[in-house]
Amino acid sequence: MAQLPILRYPDPRLHTVARPVAAVDERIRRLVDDMIETMYANEGVGLAATQVDVHERVIVMDTSDQHNQPLVLINPEIIESSAEFALGEEGCLSVPAIYDKVERHARVTVRALGRDGQSFELQAEGLTSVCVQHEMDHLIGKVFVEYLSNLKRDRIRTKMLKKTRDEQRG
Ligand code: GNR
Ligand code: NI
């Protein structure tokens, strides 16, 4: 297993639309395992392949209390979403130290392939529902800050560019 570098906003590669996985083979299983390691190492509750610069429809998540129940969603599709919406605080490993509120469907039902290539359905609510929607947005090239006002997004962009520059200077 290996940790993968995470793209940081405003990297234009975060806006790439991922293509479906053609076959859940050894290459995809290795990607999944590396993504799980990367997610845990960075204390995230989810990670989309887009964030590690792989533009295929692969998500890993773990919203369990003990962080010991990794979920793998390959080629995920939302098959049902609640009419009810909920406002929740979000963060993103690609936009470190920035948190803001985003409105999402309160509940979603997702169909996906697991690490074994078998189709399954997930009924999600609470943080899991937020996380699935956040990760599926990454797969279509969308970062949560794009739901915020232009003013907030511009401030975040400037802050992130400075932070990245400062870190490179050391
Ligand atoms: O670790 C993460 N926490 C989080 C908190 C609230 C809503 C969404 C998330 S996802 C984020 C990890 C990440 O960036 N996934 O793409
Ligand atoms: Ni994210």
Q: Share of helix among residues?
A: 25-40%
Kindly report the average pLDDT value. Answer: 98
Radius of gyration: 16 Å
- Order of strands side by side in the largest beta sheet? 1-2-3-6-7
Strand content: 25-35%
Short note summarizing the structure:
The chain has 170 residues and is an alpha+beta fold. Helix content is 29%, strand content 26%.
Describe the structure.
This protein is of the alpha+beta class. It contains three helices and seven strands, in the order αβββββββαα. The chain has helices at residues 26-41, 126-139, 150-169; strands spanning 46-48, 58-61, 71-81, 85-90, 100-105, 107-113, 119-125. The protein has a five-stranded antiparallel sheet. It has a two-stranded antiparallel sheet with strand order 4-5. Strand 6 and strand 7 form a beta hairpin. The longest helix has 20 residues, at 150-169. It is globular. The model has no long low-confidence stretch (mean pLDDT 98). The structure holds ligand GNR and nickel (II) ion (NI). Nickel (II) ion binds next to helix 2.
